[in-house]
């Protein structure tokens, strides 16, 4: 199932708009915070699809029934551009465990590249809800490689992919390689990819905009 939050009118699209806007992108702190805000909204919407239990809490004046998560999810993210979205998800799922995986494009020619996954630090994901975040789903290769690398840590009971902007190719690629029950949460699905596999109109290079140009 694909949930595209940008399709409904809300303040969410203002955050996405600022992420895309070259004149706002000059402020890296605002760029990171907007990624975090986008992830916070996506986290809230996703939270409606998790399982809850009822608990009693004691207030100064009595007892109240509250619904709490039955099980904490594992929040995995892809270094480096995933970090601000990871923080946004953690702001809502504040008791979740975290997993970090590195993935980067190593170019063989100007247009061709392999994805290198080198670092993985993760708790067991066996029987747990796994939420993987990354702001950009361009070809979808980084997401699929990271998902496969995480399977060394167990078999998740449910998978959610959380992304700010996706290309149609990536949605198809992720759907093909992840279980049918996986949910994809995105802020927007853009038109196409460039020959270098950048999303158009997209926002540019999310990692560079958040943390500086790699050399
Ligand atoms: O869907 P794909 O075609 O795999 O592209 C998307 C990947 O590209 C970006 O990371 P990048 O490789 O630029 O690394 P960075 O986070 O260090 O900038 C982005 O954060 C994704 O991980
Ligand atoms: O458009 C894209 C594609 C890959 N990585 C990015 O940061 N942006
Ligand atoms: Mg990058």
From TrEMBL:
Q: In which pathway does it act?
A: Pyrimidine metabolism; UMP biosynthesis via salvage pathway; UMP from uracil: step 1/1
Protein's UniProt keywords contain Nucleotide-binding: yes
Q: Any idea of its EC number?
A: 2.4.2.9
Reaction equation(s) it catalyzes: UMP + diphosphate = 5-phospho-alpha-D-ribose 1-diphosphate + uracil
Check the record and name the PANTHER family matching this protein: BIFUNCTIONAL PROTEIN PYRR
Q: Which family does it belong to?
A: Belongs to the UPRTase family.
Stated name of the protein: Uracil phosphoribosyltransferase
Where does this protein come from, organism-wise?
Answer: Fluviicola chungangensis
């Amino acid at each position: 199932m694909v949930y595209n939050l940008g399709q409904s009118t809300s303040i969410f699209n203002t955050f996405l708009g600022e992420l895309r806007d070259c004149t706002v992108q000059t402020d890296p702190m605002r760029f990171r915070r907007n990624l975090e805000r986008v992830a916070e909204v996506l986290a809230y919407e996703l939270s409606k699809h998790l399982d809850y239990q009822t608990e009693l809490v004691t207030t100064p004046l009595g007892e109240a029934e509250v619904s709490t998560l039955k099980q904490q999810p594992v929040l995995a993210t892809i270094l480096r551009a995933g970090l601000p979205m990871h923080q946004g998800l953690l702001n809502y799922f504040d008791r979740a465990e975290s997993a970090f995986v590195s993935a980067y494009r190593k170019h063989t020619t100007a247009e061709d590249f392999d994805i290198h996954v080198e670092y993985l630090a993760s708790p067991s994901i066996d029987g747990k809800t796994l939420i993987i975040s990354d702001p950009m789903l361009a070809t979808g290769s980084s997401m699929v490689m990271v998902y496969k690398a995480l399977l060394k840590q167990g078999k998740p009971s449910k998978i959610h992919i959380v992304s700010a902007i996706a290309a149609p190719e990536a949605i198809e690629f992720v759907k093909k390689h992840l279980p049918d029950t996986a949910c994809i949460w995105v802020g927007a699905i853009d038109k196409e990819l460039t020959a270098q596999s950048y999303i158009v109109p997209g926002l540019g290079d999310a990692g560079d905009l958040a943390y500086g140009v790699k050399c």
